[in-house]
Sequence to fold (216 residues):
Amino acid sequence: MVRGKIEIKKIENVTSRQVTFSKRRSGLFKKAHELSVLCDAQVAAIVFSQSGRLYEYSSSEMEKIIERYGKFSNDSFVAETPQVERYLQELKKEMDRMVKKIDLLEVHHRKLMGQGLGSCSVAELQEIDTQIEKSLRIVRSRKAELYAGQLEKLKEKERELLNERKRLREEQIRERLMRPVVPLTLQICDRGKTTEGGGSSDVETDLFIGLPVTRL
Fold:
């Protein structure tokens, strides 16, 4: 028969709790004894009931096991404490070095801004002047690069506009050439004289297709 899974929580019924405590305590001590015998280990278990009663098991003398445990714990704590202290000291030293560096950088920055120069020697002022000149050269070089880049972009834009304008003009010319043109010239040539008194006169009309002919 398969046993159901027991939910691990406090048993509210006092009688059931005492029965369970007795069974589990006996099982715990049994497992401790088996571990001691099978693995040749020193095992100790201490249990206090809800009423404060002490139950214990030890594979050898309890006092010796407790004494060994206390010595091991103290040795471990003492062994780890110097390492922690050295680590904290190194952190403190590193923090002090960083604070000094920050202070020096702040002082140097103020000097570069022209502040606190009263305590500077001639050599320090010369060094500051050299650093400022170097910084100015770097700034000017970068500024020239940016201007050159902008100028190149403007030239490229100008070339694009000129090419677009040329393309549009070529398209206009191409459209004009492809447009069908049929020149038609109608010339009326008067040949004869008009008679006085409303008489009729002979008029000859000639139809020419082509360019007009210039007559001298």
The radius of gyration is 57 Å. The longest helix spans residues 122-178. Residues 112 and 131 are 8 Å apart (CA to CA).
